[in-house]
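Q: Got a minute? One more chain.
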Amino acid sequence: MCIATWQPLGANDWLAVPGAALLRYGTLPDNGGDAPGMFAQSDPVVISAVLTAAGFDHIIVTPVAVTMRFGADAEAATGYLTDTGIARTVLDTIPPDRREEAVESVTAVLTHHEGPAGVELGAGIWITTATRRS
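A: Always. Here it is, folded:
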């Protein structure tokens, strides 16, 4: 088996950079440390424990850094990123009269990540391989 999961938030500028801009205006709900979500498998120890309990062995967790492109410019990237589930969750906590300002702050921060290929941000994933015990 082979799976890809996110590394912790600190290794994922694609979420941390625009997220920091939005979180100046809104909040994320507290789901607790063990709650399901996009970072539930961000710790190699947790990944190994879950797979071992499910009957797998020969578990190898390999870190991989990738660059993700989000749009041709900061405005396009903002449109894409603010339409993700996590961004919509934060936007819903922002008073309606401040949402435009919050989105503009995301665009402003993303302009610092524009390049010839568009807006690119780093991401960290784990590539995990394992085999089912016979």
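A: Strands lie at 2-6, 56-71, 114-115, 118-132.
Q: Perfect, thanks.
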